[in-house]
Amino acid sequence: MAANAHHFSDVLRERRRSARALARSFCATIPLALFWLVSLTSAPDAQEIWKMRIHRGESWQEHMLAEIDSITFHADPSPVPLVRVPAGTFVMGDGVSTCGMQEHTVTLTRDFFLAQHEITNGEYLLVLQWAYDEGLVTASTSGVWDAIGSDAELLLDLDNDYVEVQFDGGGTFYLRESPSEPAQTAYPDGYDPSRHPVKEATWFGAAAFCNWLSLYLDLPAAYDHESWECHGGDPYGAAGYRLATDAEWEYAAQFDDERLFPWGDEDPDCARANFYAPGGVCIGWTAPPTSHPAAPTALGLAHLAGNLWEWCNDWFVCELGTAPLVDPPGPNAGTHRVCRAGGWGSVDYDLRCGFRAYNAPDGATYAHGFRIARTAP
Description:
There is one protein chain. The protein is α+β, with helices and mostly antiparallel strands and 377 residues long. Helices cover 20% and strands 22% of the residues. The strands form eight sheets. The chain has a four-stranded antiparallel β-sheet with strand order 5-8-22-14. Helix 3 (121-133) packs across helix 5 (203-216). The longest helix is centred in the N-terminal third of the chain and has 24 residues, at 2-25. The two termini are 31 Å apart.
């Protein structure tokens, strides 16, 4: 299956390179008059019927030029909105947060893109369906598994009431409102699950999504599906999509004034974050990306505090030392992966930019989600 997947990605990239090369040779839209000009100046017989053939390998499709109004070339846009984060230096850790007690200077030498919000069910569904259709995953009504690596890691747990992505058993994924008590209590009149962040994705499911999106957009896959290492241990050098490193996540959250929370130094409240406030849960379930306009970050990133814990690329160790670091990739190995941001059931202390938590990479819960990153070309 791994060989098939690699062959598929090679073929996909070659086809898109050809299409883009052709697109660069013409204007974005070619009027039909251009074809008629070619036919009148080059055809020996003006009565000839001109046709166009579109070739794909050994096969081709033929179209009558008289039936075509125009041809438009366009690039596939990323389905996920991204925010550019400029390179810079900051102090990682704040001296008081759990596993952020030790402070040290970190320099990130490359600009990077970070998803404006946590990956939504709608965004995950779109790319997951594509990956399934291309044979990159297997699925049943109880889960989604990797079909490239030999270990067939669980990517998405579908066998519970909390997950909103579902599989019909016949080849199609779809969305539902969660029938769980928290979701139904939080939204008694219903809600749009496509706008809420995806839940029950393991770390492997988050990393795999990055690879699917990369291949879909003709970029190199960042993660190896055997070792699950990102770009040979150098995530900053990856050309494709990936999870943010631990350092990148904190840098973006506190950008660029060492603030305690993503919006500043003010204590969390329900206007700024979706969490477990002193008076009780703010919502009791997740919220869509635009639900907290009172909490703008310096970069316009949503829900860097609360809503869901977010998977990061790094293996977890609690304290990182005090020595200055440049583009740190995190530990070489471990048993758990870093999680950031706090969730809708987290207390205010968990929402600090310097707070570092963890979960097993095969763990899938309704409290964990992710956002994607990419080193700026």
